[in-house]
């Protein structure tokens, strides 16, 4: 975490302290108290309190009513959303997310990899009475989700074992793949078909499809996905849905400069 540069007249040090507090709260496993923050920043508790109250007035931190300790506020999420909208892949995906959601009636989403997780950075909610909701900023495991498998589809066995280490892959449903060998088989199917499929592997009653998005270097940088209640994604409907998501992923890849050699079997 950065510290204010002493002697730099351009900096407003109280603002720098506020930024440090936000980073402390973001990195902390649990909410922090006024004294906790004062000790870590080497300031008086009264200074820590005034900084927290100021941040709270802008919605950037929030105080828990029972413990009186502080955590990151929803205002930070609003700022994060603004940043995400500026990311090229998220911005380029927005019209495609909306278009596919309208055409299919199902929820669409865009995800990127963060360690062993797929983080959702874009979405458009479907119009069905029963629909799958995806929260921007939320994350799900890579190994048992369609977006995750799409993001991992270029990984070799060595890369997968390095990524997941010796940790067991947690079982979420009877369909969850829990071994690297099983995941390798899944990823081989993704490479051959051009899309990934989650058959109630994370959430019972939810099925998902996803296709990888590539940049100008042919690297997978995101995954375009679609989620629906399992009862609405029958085997007969999958080819049509796959066609929509693969065309959207290909179009976004082309906009990112990828030479679209991949055409899904359903396009």
Could you describe the 3D structure shown?
It is a single chain. Strands 5-4-3-8-7-6 form a six-stranded antiparallel beta sheet, with helices on both faces. Strands 1-2 form a two-stranded antiparallel sheet. With 267 residues, the protein is of the alpha+beta class. A hairpin with a 6-residue loop joins strand 6 and strand 7 (206-214). Residues 1-5 and 262-267 have low confidence and may be disordered. The protein has two domains: 13-78, Winged helix-like DNA-binding domain superfamily/Winged helix DNA-binding domain (Arc Repressor Mutant, subunit A); 87-255, 2-Layer Sandwich (Beta-Lactamase), CATH 3.30.450. The protein has nine helices and eight strands.
Task: Summarize the model shown.
The chain has 267 residues and is an alpha+beta fold. 42% of the residues lie in helices and 18% in strands. α5 (88-104) runs antiparallel to α9.
CATH class of the largest domain: Alpha Beta
Give the domain tally: 2
> Structural class of the secondary structure composition?
alpha+beta
**What fold name stands as the CATH topology of the largest domain?**
Beta-Lactamase
